[in-house]
Specification:
This protein is mainly alpha-helical. The chain is 52% helix and 5% strand. It folds into two domains: 193 residues, Orthogonal Bundle (Lysozyme); 50 residues. Keywords: Membrane, Transmembrane, Transmembrane helix.
């Protein structure tokens, strides 16, 4: 009988120890879990005591001076979506902000000189993230011109030269395109939307749906999100700290001082030409991405400007 009592006592002790260990593990696990709760002031400011923050939409918003109807439920929801997608894609947004200091001054200047609202710089961000990218469909450069459209608006596109990759010239061509679209549609919001869908495609949607207002149109997923992606870039760039981006001056990429060299004759070997001008092939390609080959043919009466550090 005594033996049985000892076994029972040992069993109870073991159970107690197991229960104690279980409670300790559960307690520590609960402490390790991140909290997503936040007070109302933190939510309205776009900050949080935890890793995730809620952002209040702006009270009002415009694109190129035209009001965005945030009082319409689906409009505010679509903007909300793009703000969260871009604010929480931190690596992409940080790099875009860093990159912006190299290229936005040139884009802003050319837009202003040609009467295009400054907000269209955010369209370039939506198109290419300020990089000379190439799309599967064949669009190229910061402004994503297709070959035929680029030529229509004055860009040279050959085997050794593709000015869709030329920041100044492609931005100037973009202003011509945007002006033409504004004559057609009469408002800048429709101009931005048609840049994604094409002027003809956007006009057809307006006609079929008996509405001229972008915000009243039922569009495909890409164009439906496109305008709000542009607006999200504007909202975040105009108030970066609210969305957790606190870049200091030294964080931004800078364009180095460049010298311009006019070229009137053929260059048979760009590497040799670069060496003759106290530079290298890498710099020629980095700062002149419109040069698409390792040589340059210059037609009679034509000249080019190559910039290098």
């Amino acid at each position: 009988m005594k033996k049985n009592h000892v076994y029972i006592l040992y069993s109870l002790l073991i159970l107690c120890w197991m229960l104690l260990i279980f409670l300790l593990i559960k307690h520590n696990s609960a402490q390790d879990q991140p909290t997503l709760a936040m007070n109302s002031s933190a939510a309205s400011a776009g900050t949080s005591s935890g890793p995730a923050a809620l952002f209040a939409l702006p009270d009002s918003l415009t694109f190129a001076g035209e009001p965005v109807p945030l009082e319409i439920a689906d409009v505010s929801e679509r903007l909300d979506r793009e703000i969260y997608v871009n604010a929480y894609w931190q690596s992409n947004m940080i790099l875009l902000m860093k990159r912006s200091r190299k290229f936005l001054p040139t884009i802003e200047r050319i837009l202003a000189e040609n009467g295009i609202p400054d907000d269209f710089k955010y369209l370039a961000m939506a198109e290419s993230a300020l990089m000379n990218v190439a799309s599967p469909a064949g669009a190229r450069g910061f402004w994503q011109f297709m070959k035929d459209t680029g030529r229509e608006f004055g860009l040279e596109i050959t085997n050794d030269v593709d000015e869709r990759y030329h920041l100044e010239k492609s931005t100037l061509s973009a202003t011509k395109y945007l002006k033409q679209a504004h004559k057609k549609f009469g408002d800048w919001t429709s101009v931005a939307a048609s840049y994604n869908m094409g002027q003809t495609g956007f006009s057809k949607r307006q006609e079929r749906q008996l509405s001229q207002n972008y915000y009243d149109l039922y569009l495909n997923e890409e164009t439906s999100r496109y305008m709000f992606r542009i607006l999200a870039f504007k909202v975040i760039f105009e108030n970066p700290a609210k969305y957790g981006f606190n870049l200091s001056e030294e964080d931004f990429y800078q364009m180095p001082p460049l010298r311009s060299i006019q070229v009137n004759d053929d260059i048979k070997d760009l590497a040799l030409w670069a060496k003759q001008h106290n530079s290298n092939y890498k710099n020629v390609k980095l700062y002149n991405p419109w040069l698409r080959d390792d040589n340059l043919k210059v037609r009679s009466g034509k000249s080019y400007t190559i910039t290098i550090p």
